[in-house]
Design brief:
Elements: H1 2-6, H2 15-30, H3 34-51, H4 54-71, H5 74-87, H6 92-106, H7 111-128, H8 131-148, H9 151-167, H10 171-187, H11 192-209, H12 212-228, H13 232-249, H14 252-268, H15 272-289, H16 294-309, H17 312-328, H18 332-349, H19 352-366, H20 371-387, H21 391-409, H22 417-421, H23 437-446, H24 450-459, H25 463-472, H26 480-488, H27 492-501, E1 506-514, E2 517-525, E3 528-534, H28 538-552, H29 558-569, E4 582-586, H30 607-610, E5 612-615, H31 619-627, E6 637-643, H32 655-665, E7 672-676, H33 681-686, E8 693-697, E9 700-701, E10 711-713, E11 723-725, H34 726-730, E12 738-741, E13 751-752, E14 756-757, H35 761-766, E15 771-775, H36 781-796, H37 801-814, H38 819-822, E16 825-829
Parallel strand pairs: 1-4, 4-5, 6-7, 6-8, 8-12, 12-15
Antiparallel strand pairs: 1-2, 2-3, 9-10, 10-11, 13-14, 15-16
Helix pairs in contact: 2-3, 2-4, 3-4, 4-5, 4-6, 5-6, 6-7, 6-8, 7-8, 8-9, 8-10, 9-10, 10-11, 10-12, 11-12, 12-13, 12-14, 13-14, 14-15, 14-16, 15-16, 16-17, 16-18, 17-18, 18-19, 18-20, 19-20, 20-21, 20-23, 21-26, 23-24, 28-29, 32-36, 36-37
C-alpha cells in the first residue's frame, strides 16, 4: 500500500496495482500537482512497460507529456509522445489522443507538422464518435489554427469543441475551452465583454472541477483585458493572482505568458524599459522550454518597446528578426503585424511616404479581420499622409477608418452599451488609444485646411451618443450601414454652413488634444471657423488638478486661474465680438475637468462675469439643439429630495435636500414632489412621462475609471434596490427635459476616447435630456440649496437655462459666497432651453 500512495512501483507487478497507480497519477495530474503527479505517472509508465500493457503505457505518457510541456519544456514532452505514438495505433481512441497531443505540443515548434498531426488526429477521433476525445482533438486543432494566425477559423473550432464537450458533460475540459475563447475574444476579435464573460466562466468552472491551469490562464486573460483599457492597477492585480497559481502548480509555460502580458502592460502604460525587461524574460524562458515559435512575437514586442524608448535603429533590427522568424515558422498574422509596426517606425523616423505605404500594405493583407486594426491603420495612415502634405488622401484614409468603426459598432457582438462605448478606448496594437488624431488634426489646421481639420475632429467624437439621439427623436431605426455617412462622417457642406447656423450670441470652442501631441482649439462664430495651436494635454493635467483642488478647498487661486486661462484659451477669446455672451465648449481629454467659470481673463475678470458657459459632447449634437423646436409648454416638474437610503449603503441623510426640494416645488403650481420613501427608484422609472424638469437632490457615485460603476442612490422598494445605474438612467424617457443633479460631484466620470465624459451626464443625454446641471465636486447640501433657489427663480422668470445658471452664480458672487460653491456647478447640453413650466 505504501508503494501505491507514494507512486513507487511495488515489487509485485500486477495489473491491479498498475491501474491503481495510474489512477492516482491521473488524479494528481488533473489537479496539476506536479511534484507528486510526475513520479506517480512515471512509476505507472514503468510498470506498464514491464507488464507489456500498451494502453496503460500510453495513458501514462499522455498525462506525463502535459506535465512535461508545462514544467520541463516542449522537447521533453515531444520525446514522451513519440514513444506513445509507437504504442497507440492499435487503439483508435488512444491513437487519436496521441496524434492530437503531438499537434498541440508541436504548435510551439513546427506549425506545419502540428497542423498535419492535429488534422489527422481529428479525423481518427471523429470516426470513434467518442465526444470527449473529439472535443479534445478539436481543442488541439483550434490551438494550432490560432498559432497559424487563422483566428476566425480557430474561434469556430473552439465553439465546436465547446458544444461537443458540453454534450459530453466534460466540465473540466470545458473550463480550458472557455479560457481559450476568452483569449481569442480579447486578443483578436476586440470583443472585450464576451472575453470577460468567458474568462469569468473559465475561472468558475476551473474552481468547480479542479482545473487550476484554466483558472490561472483565465486570470491572465483578465489582466490582458484590463491593460487594453489602460487600467494598470487591475491588470497587475490579475497578473499577481495568475502568478501565484502558475507557481503553485509549476506551470512554466504560464510564467512565460505572464512575462509577456506584464511586458504588454508596461508598454501600454508607456514604460518601455520595464517592458524590455519582461520581454527578455520571455526570451530566456522560451529558449529554456524549447518554444521556438515565440521568437517572432517576442521580437516584435521588443521592437515596439525600443521604438517607444527612442532606440529606432535597434527597433528596426528586432523588427527584421520578427519578420524572418514569422516567415520561417509560417505565422502570417505576425508577418502582417510587422507591416503595421514598420509603419509606426517609419512615422517615428519621419519617413512619411514609407509609413503610408507600410500601413496600406497592412490594410491590404489584413482584409476585414481583426477589423479594429483596419481602423487603427487607416487613422495612422492619415497621419503619415498629412505629414507628407497629401491632405486629400489623408482625409480619405481617415474616413475609411471611421467607416470601419461604423460597420462594426452595432453588430451583434457589440450589442451592449459598454461594448459600443469602449471600442475607441481599447489600447490597440500600437499601444496608443489616441492614434495620433490630435497630430493629424493639427497638421491640417496649420496647413490652412481648417474646415477639413474641423471635420476630421468632429468625425472622431460622439458617434454613440449622436446615434442614440437620432433614434430617440424619431429619425428612424435604420441599420448603421444606411446612415453611416450622416451619423459617423460629417458632411463637408454642413461643416461649411456651421457658422451661419450658430446663434449670434454664441461662440463654439472645440478642443482636440492628446498626450505628447499639440492641442488644436477651434473657435466657431458667425464670422467663420478659426484654429490655433496650444500645448499638449500632458502639460495641463497638473495645473487643472491643482486649480480644481484649490477651488474645492475654498481658495479662489486667482493667479493659478489666470495662468490656466492663458494655457486653455491662448488668444482665442481676444477677437470675439461684444455680442458673444455664451461659450459652448466641446472639451477633450483632461479639459473635461476644467472649472471654466472660475478662470480669470486677461483684464482680471472671472470668465463667469463675461460669459455664460456650457459643455457639449460634440458640435453635431449642439447643432441639433440650435435648430430643434422649443420645448412644448404645460409639462411638469418632478422633484426628488431627502430619499430614504437602504441601510446597507450607510449613507447620511440629506435633510437640507428636502428643504431644497420643497422650495423649488413652491415655484410651480402643481409639481410632483417626492420625499423620503416616495423618492424612490421605482418612482424615477414610472413618474417621468412628459416631465420638463427632473430635479434630483440625492447622493451620487461617479467613477473616473469604469463605465458601469457610476449611479444615483434613491429609496428602494417595489422590486428595486434603490441604486440607479448608468444603463438604467440611459433607458429613462426624458425627451427635451432639463435634469438638475444636485448631488456631490455629478459631472465627473471616465473620459472615453471619441465619446467624451461618461459618468452620469451622458446617460441622461442618451435618455433624451436636453440640458443637465451638475456639480464638479462635493458641496454641502444646505449651501447648494441656496444657490439652487436662485437658479430656479431665474428660470421662473423665463430666463434660458444657461443665462439662469450664470445669474445665480453672479448673485452668489456678489453676496460673497465662496468660489467653491458657485464654481462647482456646470451646465452640459443646450443652454438656450426654456423649460416652460412656471
Amino acid at each position: 500500500m505504501y508503494g501505491l500512495l507514494d507512486g513507487r512501483a511495488s515489487s509485485h507487478l500486477s495489473p491491479t496495482h498498475l491501474y491503481a497507480v495510474l489512477g492516482l497519477g491521473l488524479s494528481r495530474a488533473s489537479r496539476f500537482e506536479f511534484a507528486t503527479a510526475f513520479p506517480t505517472l512515471d512509476s505507472a509508465r514503468a510498470e506498464a512497460d514491464a507488464l507489456g500493457d500498451a494502453r496503460a503505457g500510453v495513458e501514462a505518457r499522455l498525462a506525463l507529456a502535459v506535465l512535461a510541456a508545462r514544467s520541463q519544456g516542449l522537447d521533453s514532452a515531444r520525446a514522451i509522445l513519440e514513444r506513445a505514438a509507437t504504442l497507440a495505433p492499435g487503439d483508435s481512441l488512444l491513437w487519436a489522443r496521441t496524434l492530437c497531443a503531438q499537434g498541440a505540443i508541436l504548435r510551439g515548434q513546427d506549425l506545419r507538422r502540428a497542423d498535419t498531426l492535429s488534422a489527422r488526429g481529428l479525423r481518427v477521433a471523429l470516426a470513434t464518435a467518442n465526444r470527449r476525445v473529439i472535443g479534445g482533438c478539436l481543442i488541439a486543432t483550434a490551438q494550432v489554427q490560432e498559432a497559424q494566425g487563422f483566428q476566425d477559423i480557430s474561434g469556430n473550432t473552439f465553439f465546436r469543441a465547446r458544444d461537443t464537450l458540453r454534450s459530453a458533460r466534460d466540465l473540466y475540459a470545458l473550463a480550458s475551452v472557455d479560457q481559450w475563447l476568452a483569449f481569442g475574444a480579447i486578443q483578436f476579435a476586440a470583443n472585450f465583454w464576451a472575453g470577460r464573460s468567458y474568462a469569468l466562466e473559465a475561472i468558475s468552472e476551473g474552481r468547480r472541477t479542479g482545473n487550476a491551469a484554466a483558472e490561472a490562464w483565465a486570470r491572465l486573460n483578465l489582466a490582458q483585458l484590463a491593460a487594453r483599457f489602460g487600467d494598470v492597477p487591475v491588470a497587475l492585480a490579475y497578473s499577481d493572482t495568475a502568478e501565484t497559481l502558475f507557481t503553485r502548480i509549476g506551470d512554466r509555460l504560464g510564467l512565460v505568458a505572464l512575462a509577456g502580458v506584464r511586458g504588454q502592460t508596461a508598454l501600454l502604460d508607456r514604460r518601455p524599459a520595464e517592458a524590455l525587461t519582461a520581454f527578455r524574460t520571455v526570451d530566456s524562458l522560451s529558449a529554456l522550454l524549447g518554444i521556438t515559435n515565440a521568437r517572432a512575437g517576442n521580437a516584435l514586442q521588443m521592437a515596439v518597446a525600443l521604438r517607444l524608448r527612442g532606440s529606432l535603429d535597434e527597433s528596426a533590427k528586432y523588427l527584421s528578426t520578427a519578420d524572418d522568424a514569422a516567415r520561417r515558422f509560417r505565422i502570417p498574422g505576425i508577418q502582417n503585424d510587422v507591416r503595421y509596426e514598420q509603419g509606426l517606425l517609419s512615422l517615428a523616423r519621419g519617413a512619411w511616404d514609407e509609413a503610408a505605404a507600410s500601413l496600406a500594405s497592412f490594410i491590404e493583407h489584413n482584409g476585414d479581420r481583426p477589423w479594429h486594426l483596419n481602423l487603427d491603420a487607416n487613422v495612422r495612415r492619415a497621419e503619415a499622409l498629412a505629414h507628407a502634405g497629401r491632405f486629400e488622401e489623408a482625409e480619405a484614409a481617415f474616413d475609411a477608418g471611421v467607416i470601419s468603426l461604423a460597420r462594426r459598432r452595432y453588430t451583434g457582438i457589440y450589442n451592449n452599451r459598454e461594448g459600443q462605448l469602449a471600442l475607441l478606448q481599447s489600447r490597440r496594437y500600437d499601444v496608443d488609444p489616441e492614434l495620433g488624431v490630435a497630430t493629424t488634426v493639427n497638421l491640417f489646421a496649420r496647413a490652412g485646411h481648417t474646415l477639413s481639420a474641423f471635420r476630421i475632429a468632429e468625425a472622431w467624437r460622439g458617434h454613440y451618443l449622436l446615434s442614440k439621439i437620432i433614434r430617440i427623436r424619431g429619425v428612424g431605426n435604420r441599420p448603421v450601414s444606411d446612415s453611416a455617412a450622416s451619423v459617423f462622417l460629417p458632411d463637408a457642406d454642413d461643416i461649411a454652413a456651421l457658422p451661419a447656423r450658430l446663434p449670434e450670441s454664441t461662440a463654439l470652442l472645440m478642443y482636440v488634444t492628446g498626450r505628447g501631441e499639440p492641442t488644436t482649439l477651434f473657435v466657431v462664430t458667425r464670422d467663420g471657423v478659426s484654429a490655433s495651436t496650444l500645448a499638449p494635454s500632458d502639460s495641463l493635467i497638473g495645473p487643472i488638478g491643482r486649480f480644481s483642488a484649490s477651488l474645492e478647498g475654498g481658495s479662489p487661486a486667482r493667479q493659478l486661474a489666470a495662468s490656466l486661462a492663458r494655457q486653455v484659451f491662448g488668444p482665442a477669446l481676444d477677437g470675439l465680438a461684444p455680442a458673444v455672451t455664451q461659450l459652448l465648449i466641446v472639451p477633450d481629454g483632461p479639459l473635461y475637468r476644467v472649472p471654466f467659470d472660475a478662470l480669470v481673463l486677461a483684464g482680471g475678470k472671472l470668465l463667469v462675469e463675461r460669459y455664460a458657459t456650457a459643455l457639449a459632447p460634440s458640435t453635431r449634437l449642439a447643432a441639433r439643439w440650435w435648430t430643434a423646436p422649443p420645448a412644448p409648454p404645460g409639462r411638469g416638474t418632478v422633484i426628488f429630495g431627502d430619499p430614504t437610503f437602504r441601510p446597507e449603503v450607510n449613507l447620511p441623510r440629506l435633510r437640507s435636500s428636502g428643504d431644497e426640494a420643497r422650495e423649488i416645488a413652491g415655484l410651480e403650481a402643481s409639481p410632483a414632489l417626492l420625499l423620503r420613501d416616495d423618492a424612490s427608484e421605482r418612482a424615477l422609472k414610472t413618474r417621468l412621462t412628459g416631465a420638463a424638469i427632473l430635479h434630483l437632490a440625492t447622493h451620487a457615485e461617479v467613477s473616473d475609471q469604469g463605465l458601469l460603476t457610476s449611479g444615483l442612490e434613491l429609496a428602494p422598494g417595489n422590486g428595486e434596490d434603490g441604486h440607479v445605474g448608468v444603463n438604467e438612467i440611459a433607458g429613462l424617457g426624458l425627451l427635451d427635459a432639463l435634469v438638475v443633479l444636485s448631488g456631490c460631484r455629478t459631472v465627473g466620470g471616465a473620459v472615453v476616447n471619441g465619446e467624451g465624459l461618461q459618468g452620469l451626464t451622458t446617460p441622461f443625454l442618451e435618455a433624451g435630456a436636453r440640458t443637465i446641471v451638475a456639480t464638479q465636486w462635493a458641496v454641502g447640501d444646505r449651501t447648494m440649496a441656496t444657490l439652487m433657489g436662485g437658479f430656479y427663480r431665474a428660470l421662473a422668470r423665463g430666463t434660458p437655462v444657461g443665462a439662469a445658471l450664470r445669474e445665480a452664480k453672479l448673485a452668489a458672487l456678489r453676496q460673497g459666497a465662496s468660489t467653491r460653491v458657485w464654481a462647482s456647478l456646470a451646465l452640459v447640453g443646450d443652454p438656450a432651453l426654456r423649460p416652460n413650466v412656471f
